[in-house]
Amino acid sequence: MLIDGSYKSRILRGDKVTTVRYGDYEAKPGSEVYLVVTPSDTAIARVRITRVEKKKVQELTNEDAKLDGFSDVGELLRELTKIYGELYGDDEVTIIGFEVIKRFDDGIPLKWLKGLNYREPAEIARLYLENQGKLNLNRETDFIMRRIYNEGLARAVRTFGPKKVQDALLKTYHALYASGII
């Protein structure tokens, strides 16, 4: 689910636990999705959808605004107008409630998640360490996987550079897949 990067801190603090989308937005309560901030296209959390409610714009309340991280419905409507253009009272919106179930303090580039079939880098590193005897990967990949596992993705990227880390993750993912581990 895409969210403007300006909301990142509110979400991670728990001040914003809904998002209001124009129209009939498809979401299913109970499903887990990645919360991706734009314009960086970086996943900052995995969230569980807690509720989906359809309303007319004129039915939005101060409580809806507060759950969305705004002080009142007027502030919420001004922000929605910036995003979607002029809204009318009978326009439909979808309120999507969510809870953060896992934070990614370092963020994970969306294109990396896609390349890993939405497996998190820490999971790939853990599976590698648990199964390294079955895999035939080079020394550099081993160092990178250990760094991700022990010190996190950001530290690995700072040490080895984003290209080498991405390549190592993809090699490891494909080796795990080819071995039937994932």
Structural features, described:
By secondary structure, the chain is of the alpha+beta class. Helix content is 43%, strand content 26%. It has helices at residues 8-13, 62-67, 73-84, 110-115, 121-131, 139-151, 153-160, 162-178, and strands at 2-4, 18-22, 32-38, 42-56, 92-109. The longest helix has 17 residues, at 162-178.
Radius of gyration: 20 Å
Instruction: List unreliable stretches of 5+ residues.
Output: none
Helical proportion, percent range: 40-55%
Q: What integer is the average pLDDT? A: 93
Number of helices: 8
The arrangement of helices and strands along the chain is EHEEEHHEHHHHH
Please report the total strand number as a whole number.
Answer: 5
* Amino- and carboxy-terminal Cα gap: 25 Å
Q: Which percent band covers the strand fraction? A: 25-35%
Tell me about the largest β-sheet: 5 strands, mixed
What topology, given as strand order, has the largest sheet?
Answer: 1-3-4-5-2
Q: Which secondary-structure class do the elements indicate?
A: alpha+beta
Shape: elongated
What descriptors fit this protein?
single chain; 182 residues; alpha+beta; five-stranded mixed sheet; 5 strands; 26% strand; elongated
SSE diagram, text form:
Blueprint: E1 2-4, H1 8-13, E2 18-22, E3 32-38, E4 42-56, H2 62-67, H3 73-84, E5 92-109, H4 110-115, H5 121-131, H6 139-151, H7 153-160, H8 162-178
Parallel strand pairs: 1-3
Antiparallel strand pairs: 2-5, 3-4, 4-5
Helix pairs in contact: 5-6, 5-8, 6-7, 6-8, 7-8
